[in-house]
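Subject: mismatched residue count in predicted assembly?

I count 333 residues in my input, but I want to confirm that the predicted structure covers every chain. Input:
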Amino acid sequence: MPLALPDLQAAFAAHLAGADRPDLAAGVLGDAIPSAARLRVYRHHVQESLASALAATFPTVQAVVGSDFFRALARAFVAENLPRQPVLAEYGEDFPAFVAGYEPARGLPYLADVARLDWALNAAFHASTDERLAAADLAALPADRLLSLRLVLASGTALVSSAHPLDRIWAASQPGAPEGTVDLDAAGAHLLVLRRPDDAAFVVLSPPEARFVDGIALGKTLEEAAAWVDGEFDLTAGFARLLNLGAFAALQ
Amino acid sequence: MTTTRIAIASALAAALVLPAAAQAQGNMEKCYGVAKAGKNDCQTAHSSCAGTSKKDQQADAWISVPKGVCEKLVGGKLSTG
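Triage response: the counts match. Full output below for your records.
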């Protein structure tokens, strides 16, 4: 007996995610192509398309593990995370967390961080290039006002911190990267991902710079963020550098 | 103002008046850029005919092992686990 519409829809969604639903076939036309085969075509198409979208969003992850492994990883993710919205470029937000828990990738502890970097670059690439805060915008402010200012990171700006040398892992994964190895025991890295006029990019921050940015992202005032940084920090150079990079949104 | 506040205020203010030449360097700072191809919501890099196979992916994909540049990441090589 055919399923009622809501049950049919739920069964179809479950089928797309990989579940075995023989009861679906009764609701699907079968002639030259049997209904079970039709359903498999549809499922295969959905899973392949979403896996391809993930490969486009997470190119560095794919470069690190190779396309066969990536395909298996992507399909495992897709089965548990069908899109909840229609924009493929916004699909995969939960992928880094999934990578972190993906058993076959357990031997690559840095892989989830690579996914986080890819995601941040993807988000930055699709972020607005609206106006950035410039040093001149703040030049006229009295000292009290400057100290109590709470800046907002510009669209697409994100801090990606890793216990692994993520910048070098990323560089070694790019097409045409020079031969040679990356020492995974090297110190971790703080990367600031930015939306630039024509692309998305990242720069390497020093630990104090990263701490300062983190404080600002948490909503601290400039004074609080500066005081929050422990250790040696050239606040003038660091703040000037961040302003020059366009890391902050223009004042409202 | 306390001494600390004054020190922070001075350091911040100094960042705003760095010579233009020094500021311009920021714009030329080496970034690792990423240029992406546009992504169409109706089809990805594959044609819309991708995945019309009537069979599901072979199960042996599940036991695939990384074969990408992780070989170059010393200590990052996976045992199949």
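The two ends of chain A are 61 Å apart (CA to CA). Marking this ticket as 'not a bug'.
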